[in-house]
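Support reply, case 0932

Customer input (verbatim):
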Amino acid sequence: MRILILGGSQFLGRAVAARACAVGHDVTCAARGVAGPIAAGAHFVMIDRDAADGLAPLAGETFDAVVDVSRYPGQVRRAVAALKRPGVHWTFVSTISVYADNRIPGQRADTAPLREPVAAEIEHSTDAIYGAAKVACEQVVGNDSFICRAGLIAGPEDPTGRFAYWPTRLARGGEVLAPGSPDDAVQFIDVRDLAQWIVHAAEVRLTGIYDGIGPIRKRGEFLAECAAALNASCTFTWVDGEFLEAHDVRRWAGPRSLPMWLPLPDFAGFLTRDTSPAREAGLTSRPPGETARDTLHWLRESHGPVIGLSSDEESAVLSAWHVRNAAATRT
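Our regenerated output:
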């Protein structure tokens, strides 16, 4: 099968190309070529998706399947106009950020309400309109495609450094600052599992809308499994969200954050998606410890990015927490 990946030079796009090549497909990656190298065995075509004629280098080519990971409505509109033809299987990688309600746990892709899409004249996207821009992209692609709404994607080559914080921190051992409660939910997908499913979807010509995320796990079990896989000796100190926010510990990602943590109940539904339809359609998930181990190995080999609390910042928050608890005990 001839597969075109619009992108293919970074993280998920490259993982999809690597998987497709590994199982014997003829893979073309079309991109600007600045984000990184494409997967071994794939063909590279240089394009500029922001230009009106930026897809011209693909003119005359025929493909059995197309995979698009863009967040920009203008790019998606031009790709659909130039490349979407009867008989071509189309995958669009969207996001769970398209959903309007993040509070209710257990929502499903086929029934959960969506954000309003950005206006038709919007070409690009920013973090502020990311979800709304992806809704607009989905509408352009249409319901005859495979729309994969990915959650947090983890694993080797992750350019965001979010998941990477945890294996890096756990590997140091000792007292670990853990957010919220051990029973709080976490949900993510290994990039290699998501890539395998995307290639499978093209092979079986799967269509429909699915949430591409792993199973719901308890945070305490997730951290314990990852620590065990890394042979790390850790103790976990669980600190409530109100205290964390009062001490300027930030949510989800970025400097001074505890990655993969979101305040409850405002985000009780964000990491508790019902992904049973995706599992029934072939999505599988490896153990979290395997993702943590492989991510840490990649980080050490490549010096990849890690974001989150520094060691000194974590120590300061833990000290403040213990001081508060000691004072409460005395009273």
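We compared this against your earlier run and they match. Two observations from our side: The radius of gyration is 21 Å. Residues 311-330 form the longest helix (20 residues). Please reopen the case if you see a mismatch on your end.
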